[in-house]
Amino acid sequence: MNALPERFEGEALSIDLHMHSTASDGALSPEALVEACASRGLTHMALTDHDTVAGVERASAVGESHGVVVLPGTELSCQWRGLNIHVVGLLPSGARGELVAGLEHQAEARERRAVQIAARMERVGLENALERAREQAGSDRPLGRPDFARALVAAELVPDMATAFRRHLGNGKAGDIKAHWPALSTVVAWVLDAGGVAALAHPLRYGLTRRKRGQLLDDFHAAGGQAVELVSGFQNPDATRDLARQLDERGLLASLGSDFHFPGGHLAPGSMTPVPRTAVAPVWTHSRLAATFGLPMPAA
Ligand code: AMP
Ligand code: MN
Ligand code: MN
Ligand code: MN
Question: What pLDDT does 300 receive?
Fold first, then answer.
């Protein structure tokens, strides 16, 4: 098994710490996702389905037989200053402590939210919206906005997913209901209580100015958050270097992931912009992750 480097030197890495399966809004089963990772040469991965660890056990079993280290994880929905923010929990011991009740809360929040989203989508012409979204999900997993987006496309109310989000489900639109989600500091506390590492997901995708992003990083750090996704899928190298400076200033660790959801798009497991050479330390050097990732344990 390839060892992970202790610092970023600009080399290609065989690790992806942010991916989805059919346990949330991904297209591949947990098993198929791990197989896709193995066939692409990944040695380390985290399964980070939205607000659940339901796929983790199945992924870990396949990981063992394919020589891929599978780190349990989840991507938690929360709120910060009226924005819907995502926090990835990297969970070497899985869900335990306060996170267990936290995930139950998230599942209920998702259900109540789906009922409200459905009512709003009916107002824009999607009849029996909850049933239609459930059909699109194809299982009894918790519903997400992509299920409503697909239902809008299937009903020919919009031409494609991107339009569905732009008109009805994206930031600030009728279907963007976030009142059910807990505060940023709450979900960070759940991850810490589970013995995990909290990584702020895709900080460049919230449409924030650099200054406001700095405030988000400050609040996340103050809440106990340890890492930030320095690279999420494909992103501008200048923006990456600038973000690295913001992490370095705060002593935050760098995580990275594709945010892969389905094959056939521009992303595959492990595909992302390379991490540039930087003084920011990789998230796997954190003492809570070093054992899982086969690094020498840092001195206490
Ligand atoms: P939810 O977890 O229900 O709040 O839904 C958020 C998910 O919707 C994200 O994780 C993405 O998978 C998906 N999503 C967000 N924006 C878009 C978009 N513009 N086009 C397609 N999918 C999107
Ligand atoms: Mn998603
Ligand atoms: Mn996300
Ligand atoms: Mn994601």
Answer: 47
Partner residues linked to 89 by β-bridges = 74, 198
Question: Among 48, 165, 176, 206, which is best to mutate for testing ligand 1, by the most ligand atoms less than 8 A from CB?
Answer: 165
Which of 2-11, 55-64, 283-292 bottoms out in mean pLDDT, i.e. has the lowest?
Answer: 2-11
What CATH number has the domain bearing residue 127? Answer: 1.10.150.650
Range of the domain at 149: 110-169
pLDDT digits (tens, 9 = 90+) for 256-288: 999 999 999 999 999 999 999 999 999 999 999
205 inside domain: yes
**Residues in the chain, how many?**
300
Which pair of structure tokens corresponds to residue 259? 């945010």
Q: Does residue 64 sit in the same domain as residue 209?
A: yes
Which ligand 1 atom is the nearest neighbour of the CA of 143?
3
* CA 90 – CA 98 distance, rounded (Å): 15
Considering the domain architecture, whether residues 157 and 139 belong to the same structural domain is answered as: yes
Ligand lying nearest the CA atom of residue 48: 4
Report the interhelical angle of 210-222 vs 237-250 (nearest 10°): 40
Q: Are residues 87 and 119 in the same domain?
A: no
